[in-house]
């Protein structure tokens, strides 16, 4: 079943059937003023914090899911029939109600046609602003005049703290009230008290309209909806009039009714504004929108802002679904995860008040090729969240105060964040991230930049990285591999404080390889000699973790092996196999055998499962994934982020066909016509897909905010498409399906334009034979930066 299509031209996903298997969402604004909106206008907004700045309600996990939202009701005042500008909440029969939802880059447009009336509502947050705009146009397509009422509606939270608002009703229902002033509902919270309460943001909110005078309003939700009714049939809409109610000790809402007549062909245009401001600012904001040209200008600005970022890397391959994701949606999702972290979605309800170290350092990787300067700011930030012992702060508070933070060694940090100790892998993610940044930009001097540590003191980036190595080296387990500490990448795997993780060992191997190169460049001979020696030792140690055709997952504190082929359950794990290859530690023979084993044993129609068989009867105490059903999440689900690593591993081995096969299996766009199986948005990766032992094999979960976005992006850009920047140029080494005869890439690199045209008439899956740069034959597949002109054409023959 298909619910919509990709519009490559506009970079929109257009939903043509509104009864999607799940709410399909988009992001507006930024965490300064953030809004999430579904294809049925469901969703919520917040100021600065999903936890403490919640402005409008959303009822997570409700049976009538995806409510409430940003509603526009339209009523025919003659026939008394009514509907909504998004299909829900009224939910007219789809026989008579046509709708299209255009999710674009930071805007969403709902178009509906019903009873010869067309409505179009454009929702967005102007660039850099902290309020939202809903521009609504209603057009009479009839041959006679139509007498209409339009209701704009929001349900305010009573308390900006989302949890308080949801559960502490003996308090929150008695702290808020609404007023009506000059075309707007104003809501106040704790109005008798000047200062903010409980750290909550936004004591004043408004919902106003320009373009028509409000005829009636409601500020009390119960009055607007009516007893024993719902958003499908609010009494105010059904009855044709709001009651001019105001909330005092109940639930606040903003309902603004506009009443007008449209001649045949005539359009009425209005704009609703919502934000956390009092009367004065709200009035000024509304006045600034009296000229609707501002809206067009702001929308153009938004599109230019986003499209110019995305246009830095564009592809045209024979696989249209791949193109959609690379050119727009995977790239856009990378920015969303980069900016929003795990702050707010329909599953992340806004309780996180900090950045996870590993997640954030990984998220950066997804945007380096698109906006390296933005990536740099966040890399600096994350280095400033590294403790002077080299470890990363497991949770970096949103109000992180570099140089002054407590660490997991301090009970206060543990009490405040709930993170009991360091995690073995956190700081090791810095290596690929810093490497990618330096290689994309050539900014090798970044290694000499001085950055503070989280808990005080400062050092160069090079020294920060040395300390990260040191952190692992000082915490080796009995077999010489890094101890898993609280956990490694896998949140559900506790092998004991001194238990050892092969995944982290491969990460450390990779990290030392990267740093060794820089040590040599810097003539830091003593350190390079040290790393060379440690690399050899670790290599040998990891050889002991090889069992014929696979690497084990680790060794518990008590010496028992996890992920041995002899185990009755979880006897093959995906990540150690892919990371053995990515790290460069596996021999060629091991790499091929391990990848073959994954392909034979873990591969499914929707990607490779994380481990197999899932734990059921034979789990150990630290195998927390047992909590999940079989084939779900870490218990043998198809963990989507790990698909990125297996794609990359296959691509690095030159196995283009397999790399792309894995990609297609987890590509949301590839499932556009099987949306009833996948359920999540066909334009955004989710955290995991249910594995082969689930009755719902192929169903995806936890939309949008996932490390999958950046990991799959890197796998595609560096792996499949073979864009592998180095400090002094661009190495080109694609691993593609052998049936691609040609494909194109345009890339901005070091402020130069590269137009690359690939020729693969002989049907190879990897290997570049020759490259012509601006007509000149290069000596191999490396494009030196000094040969680049402002605009460059590359003809690349495989
Ligand atoms: O690596 C973690 C991530 O930090 C949070 N989501 C789950 C992943 C795997 O456990």
Describe this structure in words.
With 798 residues, this protein is α+β, with helices and mostly antiparallel strands. 28% of the residues lie in helices and 26% in strands. The strands form twelve sheets. It has a ten-stranded antiparallel beta sheet, with helices on one face. Strands 19-38-39-43-40-41 form a six-stranded mixed beta sheet. Strands 7-6-12-17-16 form a five-stranded antiparallel beta sheet. A hairpin with a 4-residue loop joins strand 4 and strand 5. Helix 17 runs parallel beside helix 20. It binds 5-hydroxymethyl-3,4-dihydroxypiperidine. 5-hydroxymethyl-3,4-dihydroxypiperidine binds next to helix 8.
Q: Specify the biggest β-sheet.
A: 10 strands, antiparallel
Could you tell me which ligands this complex binds, including any ions or cofactors? Answer: 5-hydroxymethyl-3,4-dihydroxypiperidine
Which blocks of ≥5 consecutive residues have pLDDT under 50?
Answer: none
**Proportion of helical residues:** 25-40%
Q: Strand order of the main beta sheet, please?
A: 1-2-8-9-10-11-18-15-14-13
Mean pLDDT: 96
Query: Quick one: overall form?
Result: globular
Alpha-carbon Rg, integer: 28 Å
Class of secondary structure makeup? alpha+beta
Distance between the termini: 38 Å
Number of strands: 43
* Helix segment tally: 20
What fraction strand? 25-35%
Organism: Sporanaerobium hydrogeniformans
Protein name: N,N'-diacetylchitobiose phosphorylase
